[in-house]
């Protein structure tokens, strides 16, 4: 009898031991995956640097310039740590604000996108009609989409009657990069919006924004 109890007890401990070993072998990779910073989602609305264009390359009434936005992107199991996630058009319409002190810079950056538009428009290059890439028009005084001939003024509003786009070009929230010693670079919150809709609805969730009609 005592021998039976000992055997049962031994088998019980053996089962627990084997279970523990399997848990460790299976659990360690799962825990490692979860705590690996590459698998953590960053803040959804983080500002991203616009590369390829500096503010002092623009001028009021001058030709708009294009910049590139990069971020970490995942595609299935593949991680792209510094991939191009979008492009933006920068259009300077007013004088550069006074950014001579950290307080003035902070005050400017705290303004709304609509308020900042008296100085600079920042548009995503995606056409609000069906998402094609919007180019400068031939004269450089507006934008044109090659896919279905949508045209836009330099303020992003639709240029012509019969425009297939239901809203103007989508503005993005932006700020002057405080880490740039020359204050010549900007950061944006890069977003895409629902195509072919008069309303400006961010893809992937978020509050509806005021469209550029
Ligand atoms: S996608 Fe631009 S006009 Fe259709």
What does this structure look like?
With 213 residues, the chain is of the alpha+beta class. The chain folds into 2 domains: 2-39; 48-188, Rieske Iron-sulfur Protein (3-layer Sandwich), CATH 2.102.10.10. It contains 3 helices and 9 strands; from the N terminus they run αβββααββββββ. Strands 4-3-2-1-9-8 form a 6-stranded antiparallel β-sheet. A 3-stranded antiparallel β-sheet has the order 5-6-7, with no helix packed on it. The longest helix is centred in the first third of the chain and has 34 residues, at 2-35. It is elongated and about 95 Å long. The termini are far apart. The structure holds FE2/S2 (inorganic) cluster.
Protein topology:
Elements: H1 2-35, E1 48-51, E2 65-75, E3 78-92, H2 102-109, H3 113-116, E4 120-124, E5 135-136, E6 142-144, E7 151-153, E8 174-176, E9 186-188
Antiparallel strand pairs: 1-2, 1-9, 2-3, 3-4, 5-6, 6-7, 8-9
The structure holds FE2/S2 (inorganic) cluster.
Q: Ligands in the structure?
A: FE2/S2 (inorganic) cluster
Give the overall shape, derived from the CA principal axes: elongated
Question: What's the pLDDT, averaged over the residues?
Answer: 87
Straight-line N-to-C gap: 88 Å
Residue stretches low in confidence (pLDDT < 50, at least 5 long) are none
Describe the strand arrangement of the main beta sheet, using strand numbers.
4-3-2-1-9-8
Main pleated sheet: 6 strands, antiparallel
Determine the fraction of residues in helical runs and give it as a percent range: 10-25%
Let me know the CATH homologous superfamily of the largest domain: Rieske [2Fe-2S] iron-sulphur domain
CA radius of gyration: 26 Å
- How many individual domains? 2
Strand-and-helix sequence, N→C? Answer: HEEEHHEEEEEE
Indicate the proportion of strand residues: 15-25%
- Count of separate DSSP helical elements: 3
Count of individual beta strands: 9
- CATH class identity of the largest domain: Mainly Beta
Instruction: Could you tell me the CATH topology label of the largest domain.
Output: Rieske Iron-sulfur Protein
Just name the CATH architecture of the largest domain.
Answer: 3-layer Sandwich
Structural class by sheet pairing and helices: alpha+beta
